[in-house]
Amino acid sequence: MNNICVCIYTRFWLTHLVFMGAGAMGEIKHLVIVKFKEGVVVEDIVRGMEKLVSEFDLVKSFEWGQDSEGPEMLTQGFTHSFSMTFDKKEDYAEFQSHPNHVEYSATFSAAIEKIVVLCFPSVRVKPSA
C-alpha cells in the first residue's frame, strides 16, 4: 500500500499513528470530521484551532464548516469538518509532532464524541479559478 496515512483516535485519549508510503507526491490533505460532545462550546474549539494553525507556515490552508444540508441518515451524527492542506508529507508530520499541536490535540479530543480522520495526497481534477 503506497501513499497512505492512517490516523487512529480513541474516544477519551488521543492516539495518533501516521504511516505514509514513500514517494507521496502533491499536497497532503488532512480531513477531520467530528461530532462534539453535548455542552461543548464549539466556537471555543474553533478559535483554538484557528490560533493553532496561524502559528504554522507549514499549514498552507485551513477550512472548517458545520453541516447544514446533509440528510441525518448520511451524516451519522457528525456535525463539523476541518480540513488542512500541507505541501508535502514531511510538513504534515512536522505539524503533527509539534508540541503545540500535541497539546491542543488533548483539548480537541476531550471535546469530541466521535471522529473520522483521513489523510491523503490530493489529486486536483479542476484547479481553483
TrEMBL record:
**Pfam families documented for this protein:** Dabb
Q: Which parts pass through the membrane? A: none
Q: Which residues form the Stress-response A/B barrel domain?
A: 28-120
Q: Where is the signal peptide, in residue numbers?
A: none
Q: Could you give the subunit structure recorded for this chain?
A: Homodimer.
Entry-linked PANTHER family: EXPRESSED PROTEIN, PTHR33178
This one is known as Stress-response A/B barrel domain-containing protein
Q: Which organism is it from?
A: Salix udensis
Q: What is the lineage of its organism?
A: Eukaryota, Viridiplantae, Streptophyta, Embryophyta, Tracheophyta
